[in-house]
Structure formats: C-alpha cells, structure tokens
C-alpha cells in the first residue's frame, strides 16, 4: 500500500466494516480479504490484497470512491461523508457535512463538521462560494410570484431560475432569512 503518514488515523467505513477504511486525511483503502468466486464450476476462495483506492471528482466537485459489497453491488460514496461518519460525533443528528475552508477536495477531518442544510448554505454564502447573489429585484420577484403548487413558480422552478437552493426560495417567500446577507443591492 501507499506510504502511511504517522499522524494519519484509520477507521472502518461505516457499513463496510472489514472491507474498507477511511483515514483522518481523507484517504480510503480496501483491506486484505478473501472472496468466493466460481471457477470451472467450483466455488473457490480467492485472496485479495488491500490497496489505496482511487478517488474521483463528481459533477459537483466532491471526491468520491466506489465500493463493492462482495462483487454484488457497487456504491458511489462521497469521501467527506465517510470521514465524518467515522471520525466526527453528530449528537444533534445534523444531515450535512460542511467543508470549513470551502474546498470540496479537502477531506481532512480537521476541515469537516456536521451542519444543517441552512448552516451549510449560509456558510457557503459567507465564504463567497456561491456562484450567484440575488439582487433586490430577484428577491422581490421570488416573494411576489412564489406559488407552491404552480409548475412555473414553485420552489424548485424559482430556485433553478435564480441558481439558488430551493430552501432559500421557501425562506424568502416566508420572510425567514436576513436578506441583508444574501442580496447585492445595486
């Protein structure tokens, strides 16, 4: 296997104990194991040597890794979630993992924390990571035209139109956010 840093800690991947481990530095490896295969009509035990796994970037810029469950099912997993599940307690049962420095490919445990969706979005705005900001006219448009059961003006349609998270549309329509944080007044 690749060189291991002495400060790097390895823990079992939740749900894949005995097959895969994730490190405090955001690396992933498979473990030595024996699998059963059918060869020439007989079931034989085949030893597999563990190795460091290749990480790939998904369409959203997050690093992912594929796992196989005994060769039957393959799953694609975001590495930052694997690190958080293995290393970071989540007593408030928050649903998302936030990259503290805003870099989606920095999956070290010191750069991750559990957050709510709202906290994660707010953090991305505060760090300037969002691709767009709303003008006052945009906010007024959302506030005036939002209709939850309309195909053209529902939460998802308006979110797509303004390139914002759908929850922001709902919060704008209900006046539940501090608009000064999210509006670029011209």
What features would you describe in this structure?
It contains 5 helices and 10 strands. With 186 residues, the chain is an alpha+beta fold. The protein folds into 2 domains: 10-126, Homing Intron 3 (I-Ppo) Encoded Endonuclease, Chain A; 136-181. A 3-stranded antiparallel sheet has the order 1-2-3, with helices on one face. The chain has a 3-stranded antiparallel sheet with strand order 6-7-8. Strands 4-5 form a two-stranded antiparallel ribbon. A hairpin with a 5-residue loop joins strand 6 and strand 7. Helix 3 (136-145) packs across helix 5 (166-174) and helix 4 (155-162) crosses helix 5 (166-174). It is elongated. The N and C termini lie far apart (55 Å). The mean pLDDT is 87.
Set down the secondary structure blueprint:
Layout: E1 10-12, E2 20-23, E3 28-30, E4 33-39, E5 42-48, E6 56-57, E7 63-68, E8 74-78, H1 79-87, E9 96-99, E10 112-115, H2 117-126, H3 136-145, H4 155-162, H5 166-174
Antiparallel strand pairs: 1-2, 2-3, 4-5, 6-7, 7-8, 9-10
Helix pairs in contact: 3-5, 4-5
Task: Summarize, please.
With 186 residues, the chain is of the alpha+beta class.
By CATH, the architecture of the largest domain is named Alpha-Beta Complex
Number of helices: 5
Q: What structural class do the secondary elements suggest?
A: alpha+beta
Poorly predicted sequence stretches spanning 5 or more consecutive residues? none
Order of helical and strand elements? EEEEEEEEHEEHHHH
Strand adjacency order, main sheet? 1-2-3
Q: What characteristics describe this protein?
A:
5 helices, Homing Intron 3 (I-Ppo) Encoded Endonuclease, Chain A, single chain, alpha+beta, three-stranded antiparallel beta sheet, 186 residues, 10 strands, 2 domains
């Amino acid at each position: 296997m690749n060189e291991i840093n002495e400060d790097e800690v390895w823990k079992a991947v939740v749900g894949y104990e005995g097959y895969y481990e994730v490190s405090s530095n955001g690396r992933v490896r498979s473990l030595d194991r024996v699998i059963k295969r059918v060869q020439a009509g007989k079931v034989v035990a085949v030893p597999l040597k563990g190795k460091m796994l290749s990480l790939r970037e998904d369409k959203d810029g997050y690093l992912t890794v594929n796992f196989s469950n005994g060769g039957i099912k393959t799953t694609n997993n975001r590495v930052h979630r694997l690190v958080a599940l293995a290393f970071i307690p989540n007593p408030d049962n928050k649903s998302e993992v936030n990259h503290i420095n805003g870099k989606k490919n920095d999956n070290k445990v010191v750069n991750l924390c559990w957050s709510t969706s709202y906290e994660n979005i707010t953090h991305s705005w505060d760090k300037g990571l969002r691709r767009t900001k709303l003008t006052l006219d945009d906010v007024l448009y959302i506030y005036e035209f939002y209709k939850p059961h309309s195909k053209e003006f529902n939460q998802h349609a308006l979110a797509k139109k303004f390139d914002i998270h759908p929850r922001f549309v709902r919060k704008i329509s209900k006046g539940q956010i501090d608009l000064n944080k999210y509006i670029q007044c011209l």
